[in-house]
Amino acid sequence: xxxxxxxxxxxxxxxxxxxxxxxxxxxxxxxxxxxxxxxxxxxxxxxxxxxxxxxxxxxxxxxxxxxxxxxxxxxxxxxxxxxxxxxxxxxxxxxxxxxxxxxxxxxxxxxxxxxxxxxxxxxxxxxxxxxxxxxxxxxxxxxxxxxxxxxxxxxxxxxxxxxxxxxxxxxxxxxxxxxxxxxxxxxxxxxxxxxxxxxxxxxxxxxxxxxxxxxxxxxxxxxxxxxxxxxxxxxxxxxxxxxxxxxxxxxxxxxxxxxxxxxxxxxxxxxxxxxxxxxxxxxxxxxxxxxxxxxxxxxxxxxxxxxxxxxxxxxxxxxxxxxxxxxxxxxxxxxxxxxxxxxxxxxxxxxxxxxxxxxxxxxxxxxxxxxxxxxxxxxxxxxxxxxxxxxxxxxxxxxxxxxxxxxxxxxxxxxxxxxxxxxxxxxxxxxxxxxxxxxxxxxxxxxxxxxxxxxxxxxxxxxxxxxxxxxxxxxxxxxxxxxxxxxxxxxxxxxxxxxxxxxxxxxxxxxxxxxxxxxxxxxxxxxxxxxxxxxxxxxxxxxxxxxxxxxxxxxxxxxxxxxxxxxxxxxxxx
Amino acid sequence: xxxxxxxxxxxxxxxxxxxxxxxxxxxxxxxxxxxxxxxxxxxxxxxxxxxxxxxxxxxxxxxxxxxxxxxxxxxxxxxxxxxxxxxxxxxxxxxxxxxxxxxxxxxxxxxxxxxxxxxxxxxxxxxxxxxxxxxxxxxxxxxxxxxxxxxxxxxxxxxxxxxxxxxxxxxxxxxxxxxxxxxxxxxxxxxxxxxxxxxxxxxxxxxxxxxxxxxxxxxxxxxxxxxxxxxxxxxxxxxxxxxxxxxxxxxxxxxxxxxxxxxxxxxxxxxxxxxxxxxxxxxxxxxxxxxxxxxxxxxxxxxxxxxxxxxxxxxxxxxxxxxxxxxxxxxxxxxxxxxxxxxxxxxxxxxxxxxxxxxxxxxxxxxxxxxxxxxxxxxxxxxxxxxxxxxxxxxxxxxxxxxxxxxxxxxxxxxxxxxxxxxxxxxxxxxxxxxxxxxxxxxxxxxxxxxxxxxxxxxxxxxxxxxxxxxxxxxxxxxxxxxxxxxxxxxxxxxxxxxxxxxxxxxxxxxxxxxxxxxxxxxxxxxxxxxxxxxxxxxxxxxxxxxxxxxxxxxxxxxxxxxxxxxxxxxxxx
Lengths: 574, 574
What we know:
Two copies of one chain form a homodimer.
Chain A: H1 21-28, E1 32-36, E2 39-42, H2 44-63, E3 67-68, E4 74-76, H3 77-83, H4 85-88, E5 95-97, E6 103-106, H5 111-121, E7 130-139, E8 154-164, H6 167-187, E9 192-196, E10 208-214, E11 220-225, E12 231-233, E13 254-257, H7 264-271, E14 279-286, E15 289-296, H8 303-309, E16 316-318, H9 321-328, E17 345-349, E18 358-361, E19 367-372, E20 382-384, E21 402-417, H10 419-424, E22 427-429, E23 435-437, E24 439-446, H11 447-457, E25 459-460, E26 463-464, E27 475-479, H12 485-500, E28 505-508, H13 514-524, E29 528-532, H14 534-538, E30 541-546, E31 552-556, H15 557-573
Parallel strand pairs in A: 3-7, 15-17, 17-20, 27-28, 27-29
Antiparallel strand pairs in A: 1-2, 4-6, 5-6, 7-8, 8-24, 9-10, 10-21, 11-12, 11-21, 13-19, 14-15, 14-16, 18-19, 21-24, 22-23, 25-26, 29-30, 30-31
Helix pairs in contact in A: 1-11, 2-6, 2-11, 12-15
Protein name (chains A, B): Proline--tRNA ligase
Family (chains A, B): Belongs to the class-II aminoacyl-tRNA synthetase family. ProS type 1 subfamily.
Subunit structure (chains A, B): Homodimer.
């Protein structure tokens, strides 16, 4: 491709609305343009990257027996009502009506459609396992679309669904996909980590892993063990409860006046006690139910754990000050577990019963109890793992300290079990003629998001530094002079030679200064740059530069093509 | 691929709701399944055909300088309001609101999005011409979705948009695409015809061609000249007005009583005159405007010509009986051009002024005028070409008789001119620094519809007869026995051999009777079938059968792969 004919509008300035580096660079390098909030057009180079990732994903799915299909984006509401998700999915689901006023949605995932398909076609255990996938647009009505392709409203996903006879079969399919995902992100040239994850809105209770591309700018926090292979989304990571060194109180609990004290910080300072001795008491509402949640003062409550532990509410939130006033008779800052209403359920993180001499709110403005003992002075109905893990804690598996990293979620695999097959009746007859529900898994790769994640992980101050396997083109030829006939003719010769060797190459033949071309080459991030200047070419040499290392070498013009080819092959092997 | 592992559910019965043969065969051959009215899932074999057509389209677009991009399916209403199409597009446009109640539509075409993109990126004539295309889902809320992929609500299209400096540039881009489309449908192995067409809702006045795959079952009628290369959609074809041999009346026009007479047929019979002497008078409403339309009694009014000739109404329809009564003082069956209200515009087909002694309605129930003369007895405000062409008529270009054929529209090319670039301000500076509007064209291929059209044109009583270039697989190997080890092992050997030669092959290894496998092979329509039976294989031979001709030959097993390869290459050259 000649750059003079390529629609690749690069920008020197950072677009005002682009908050993260991948978004900035994708716009500046002319890979995407915004059509509306969260809706983008892929320009030629952006689309090439997308197609490359798609091709890698497709190969790895096919290699594991995945069969590619294509399901409709528009989905009838009836199926979502059958699965029960129509009413619970909430505002993120784009809904629309057709001219006959029938309801539809734009698919955020395709469990309903695929399960409907399979229940119509599968009769016997002999037809299982079945692994079906598609690569297609998905839709999510984000409250605040942002970060370019990282959190768009229309995005490209690969979603595969597995149907098995039993849990053992699901386990096998799951492992296949887990392995495939590792291959995919390795082949894309990315540094990633699979971590244990929460299944979220997709549902299913059989387990889930997320695949995180590691980058300091990542939205997600993950913990991983320095001693074993344990890794998890911080939101999901189980915690080992840690007792605080402390002595039991000598006497009864006491009510103390704490004027002006509102927060955990305030009370810690006012009483001059460490936060580890405080009980944080939070009144929550899950759907119609209200309950009191206790965690140690230095810890953070993990709402996802809380919701999972209590069975999964559609809506879970802190009770409003009005509700707190009504139930506890005080403001939210004064809530405590002592002498709570009889019917109120009290759930506590596993560390709370280990506390010996605690301080807590007294359900009375500007007062606290001190020398409080769990069990003696207040009741706990359920002890659960409810807190966020913290870096440096001991791994639950091996005890070695956990480390923290930031990551961008680019894939997730789920053991769905029979949630959808039971709801929609996707059954088969087993060897004995007994009707059973298919055991399902689902597996998604955020194809468009992987582009953004790759850039977050691979860039420098000058622009994108593409890993070779997903670069829009592998090599750019820059003519430092467009007046020098030898330069122009040799450039064209090398361009043809590289193309004939199968190298993906562009020739920057624009009538621009060399500096402009260099800047664009760095910004777009072609892994290899070949520069033809009058001086060096007079000696029969051209300059070959690696974008990543910045290393430059002079190469004989006649050896250039082969050398480029070799470097690319080497880079693709990694 | 092993058929035992392929999701290819074939059916013996014709699905009740499938009205046309392509729909029936796509469901029966296991290529698609319905998810909802007008919304389909492509199963693996159906998707392979789709991808093959996409690949051909992509190659031909790239070969002519087209650059592939990908635009959002969800489009903001603002852009449609800028172009003026939001209010006029009507019920076929799927509309939806996001959570902030902003309006969007699902793109039926992408003129707005692409023009918005180009106005942001193009500054100079040096950046033109620019040819941008995408292959993507399109949406149309059909009143009655039917015929499977022929008229779906979600379908795959390739749409290319060209941006040029001037009309001459547009003409060049248009010709490029016209040529590309000829290559595409030739390469798909289809018999097709490009015909002059009406631009319809896309707009533009610079001309348009449709590409019709010829099939008796086609929805569209086309006329083509037996003497020259003229061809047109029957709706669009211009007509040469033909005078009727007749003598002028001797006296004044007369009012005659015609009791019980309502239709053209009635009056022709009642007065014993040919229909060519009758004037058909129709009161129409175009948006807010009412006018009287006259055509000869034996002709059919062409509403598309009528609408184009009068400047294009958003809504054009016959006036209701109430409106006719109010304006003409009679029922619709009695309307005539004599003594009409003064302000009422009268437009007539070019044949009407050539009539000498006509009969027409008298604007009075059960009465007609006879011996009516145009000009003398009634006025005509505009004479236009308003009728449908008929087979056998003389070609306007060369005079030879026109013939009729049925076709399925699979592509259309449009000269848009500056309709969208003016509305949205997609301008550039020319050589002299003068700001001008880009001159646009747009060019669509119905990729998914081409599958259906290919089947309408290529099938027999047993199933689909794929043209080699778009067959889901080129060859199927059938083991007539699954008990005979020699058969099974040779089949596997040939399967591997064919794959290594790059042949797209499936091995029907299912534990089914040979008859079932043959029926499925014919139904799915693999161009070549290789059968391994115990008897022939004992002699070292296998049977090779061509689906299209039904010709069968015995081939030495060791020569089979090479022969199949040769036949495929030959078939792909056509």
